[in-house]
């Protein structure tokens, strides 16, 4: 594997909360264009690892490189600027802003005009705002909710709100999109639409880290999977390899799932 193919390279990540060792020496490598899954039973450390990667928690130890460049996950905005965009298990949209405005907020991380331009409404600022709005509309169309651009986020269906979050993440032009339980609360039809969207994003050359409880979705979508249990990495490989792993079957999947 060429090092230039590796989008995210993380090793030796540990995190303790008081007397609880939440993560112990966890690491992953994600190649460009992959959908990479992170699974494990409740309390396995998935969310802690995800939050460390994206700057919500500061790790006790670990090395982090994104696109071949070291980064330090100490703050969410710094991680976003480095090139990781994330969604949340509990939807975090601006409920009383329109769908278009929500995506424009994501895009502003890549703007140049600054506060003075915004206050003075300079020609450069106005041109940039028009370009941002155009790109936001393109992304809404891309995720399949373009017709709802002027709807307030709170009026959208649950599945459409999930897609809006993904559009906002894409607006930052990320090197890596980190999706936190995107299928949570979705019905079967919404999950099919979500899977098609994630496939489309991958096929367009994006790289995705997926944390998800829906094992069937993970195994059907992901190129590689890491399994955590009690904060430790117990397996890593293709979905087929992971499903055959005895430690995984014992810790997480169970005999019923392993047979699928």
Automatic annotation (TrEMBL):
The lineage of its organism: Bacteria, Pseudomonadati, Pseudomonadota, Betaproteobacteria, Burkholderiales. Residues 8-255 form the ABC transporter domain. InterPro entries: AAA+_ATPase, ABC_AA/LPS_Transport, ABC_transporter-like_ATP-bd, ABC_transporter-like_CS, BCA_ABC_TP_C, P-loop_NTPase. This is ABC transporter ATP-binding protein. GO terms for molecular function: ATP binding. PANTHER family: AMINO ACID ABC TRANSPORTER ATP-BINDING PROTEIN (PTHR45772:SF7), CONSERVED COMPONENT OF ABC TRANSPORTER FOR NATURAL AMINO ACIDS-RELATED (PTHR45772). CDD domains: ABC_Mj1267_LivG_branched. Keywords: ATP-binding, Cell membrane, Membrane, Nucleotide-binding, Transport. PROSITE patterns: ABC_TRANSPORTER_1 (PS00211), ABC_TRANSPORTER_2 (PS50893).
């Amino acid at each position: 594997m060429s090092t230039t193919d590796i989008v995210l390279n993380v090793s030796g990540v540990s995190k303790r909360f008081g007397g609880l060792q939440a993560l112990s020496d966890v690491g992953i490598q994600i190649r460009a264009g992959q959908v990479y899954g992170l699974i494990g039973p409740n309390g396995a450390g998935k969310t802690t690892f995800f939050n460390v990667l994206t700057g919500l928690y500061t790790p006790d130890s670990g090395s982090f490189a994104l696109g071949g460049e070291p980064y330090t996950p100490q703050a969410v905005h710094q991680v976003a600027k480095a090139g990781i965009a994330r969604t949340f298990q509990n939807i975090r949209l601006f409920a009383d802003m329109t769908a278009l405005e929500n995506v424009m907020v994501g895009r502003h991380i890549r703007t140049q005009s600054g506060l003075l331009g915004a206050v003075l409404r300079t020609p450069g600022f106005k041109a940039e705002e028009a370009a941002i709005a155009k790109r936001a509309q393109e992304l809404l169309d891309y995720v399949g909710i373009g017709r709802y651009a002027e709807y307030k986020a709170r009026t959208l269906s649950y599945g459409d709100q999930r897609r809006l979050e993904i559009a906002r993440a894409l607006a930052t032009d990320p090197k890596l999109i980190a999706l936190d339980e995107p299928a949570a609360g979705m019905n079967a039809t919404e999950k099919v639409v979500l899977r098609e969207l994630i496939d489309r994003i991958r096929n367009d050359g994006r790289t995705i880290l997926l944390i998800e409880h829906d094992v069937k979705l993970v195994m059907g979508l992901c190129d590689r999977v890491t399994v955590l249990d009690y904060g430790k990495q117990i397996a890593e490989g293709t979905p087929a390899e992971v499903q055959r792993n005895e430690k995984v079957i014992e810790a997480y999947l169970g005999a019923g799932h392993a047979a699928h």
